[in-house]
Task: structure prediction
Amino acid sequence: MQRTVQLPSLSVTALSLCSLIALGSSAAQAADEKLVISVYGFAQDAFSEIVYKPFEEQCQCELVVETGNSVERLAKLEARKDDPEIDMAVMSTHDALSANRKGVTQAIDVSRLSNFDKLYDIAKDPLGDHLGIGYTFYATSIVYRSDKVSIDSWQDLFKDELKGRVAFPNVTTNQGPPALYMLGKAMGDDDASLEAPIKQVAEHRDDIVTFYERSSQVAQLMQQEEILAAPVGRFAWGAYTKMDMPLAWATPTEGQTGGMNVMVLTKGAKHEDLAYQFMDFWLSTGIQTQLAEALVDSPANAEVIVSDEVAGNLTYGAETVSSLKLMAPDVILDNRDQWLESWNDKVAQ
Amino acid sequence: MFENKFVGMALVLPGVLFAALVFLLPVGYLLAEGFQSADGWSFSPYIEFFSSERNRTVFLRTLKLGAMVTVVSTIIGYAAAWSIVSLKPTSRGRLIGLVILPLMISPVARTYAWIVILGRTGIVNQALMTIGLSDEPIRFLFTETAVFIGLLQLFLPLMILSLSSAMENMPADAVAAARVLGANPLQVFWKVILPLTREGLVIGGTLVFTGSLTAFITPAILGGSKVLMLETLLYQRVTVANDIASASVIAMILIVMSFCANQLLKRVATARGAK
Result:
């Protein structure tokens, strides 16, 4: 029976005592058949139907699902470093790298994943040393009103027709740094400090309606004709297709950027075998296909085949995937605080 | 009230313990983080915070908006409360009900309504263009003006309720007596109404000012990161940078600001009463 819980903190002593009492009993057997995972709160109903319940039936075990944002997840993993209760987790590439640097995750033995070879190359080892396995990714480009403007470059966000009609992702969002990176690329500046694009955004601050925090906010502003263009993640594209508006997805000359989410294995995971089974199950062609068809996640499994209609709402296909200009996770992690400071000093004053 | 004082203490003990365990202890622990530096206890995190021009800008903006919302809600609140207490009890109850009504609606819904009202295609812009005051839509959203309007709408009911309650407790003939003695309306307010309603003003002012300082949803939705305020900065420090020490400093600043506002309002009201 799958459960979603917020486990209270227990002392090591209490846990040890409980373990001793349970030794040799049937309860111990049941405890061994329990897998604890930590995931995003997004689309949990769909995940439950497509991933969790079928896996429980297959493994004859109990799946405990904890949900929360990356900060909560990292804090929890760090707090329980010496006695981990979470066996596997999913997070962005840079958060996964941060988790590994804090010593809470371990390398994944990919030989234990039968579906590993089916993954796109960029998903196989995005962090190096197999510290994480990509299970989904998304493109980030510019959604715009095709009846009012045309977008051929990231620099087009600052053209005259769009003055006062553009939203831009805040640097605190997952879309912010990649969008700034592409602005920089369009200026011919690849520097990881993002100083040049942040300076440019600051210069055009008054021409930008808002620096959004959530993709849903952009859809609303587009609906109200408050904005005509904004950089967004492809995972939000479905909402725009439902609008009765001439909206288009830009393919700028500099290319599209994006992001990737990875699975990580907790260091000292108590149910390592089950964690490997679960990861392999999630990466399988059947499950990745179902998640894609439900428009939950773009597939990292290259064998997934979906209809054109479904593909249009996802980041799908070898060509699309290979064209993504993703920021390296260590670059994001090592520069994140400095970007925030620079942004707040120049843009958010 | 209780024959045995221990009975009273025993009754209050669970509440005190609960508050201490779930509020005072964690908050105290959190705030203590703000006084930690590499050398141990120190004020350096605060000095560091205020040495940043951006932080000073955010601090002053938060203070300014909080003060403006409090002052404007006081002016509107006195007028509204005076009108309410001047009515017959039945009508008074209806009006109080209308004042309370917005408090029953989620602040998120109330704030989102302003996006529709203040947007390019919203009724404010439509009206301005219809009557010829503007040729094109004016941008209201994501400005300090929008945040001010949102906060005022959010907390004005609290001020009206506090002042109405205080005015209902005023001696019925106090204002009439002042008028008979030759006081003009301004003098009546300054020398009679204000001193007699100072408790309501202090409570209402503290609620409005503190609420304006600590409201997160409204500044986040109507101001976004273009109108960064202390509470949105605090959120950033926790969720993005995972910097609990900086967040503790901001939390302490907010608490001190609220406390100072409360003391200031008390002094203003007491000073009026003494003259």
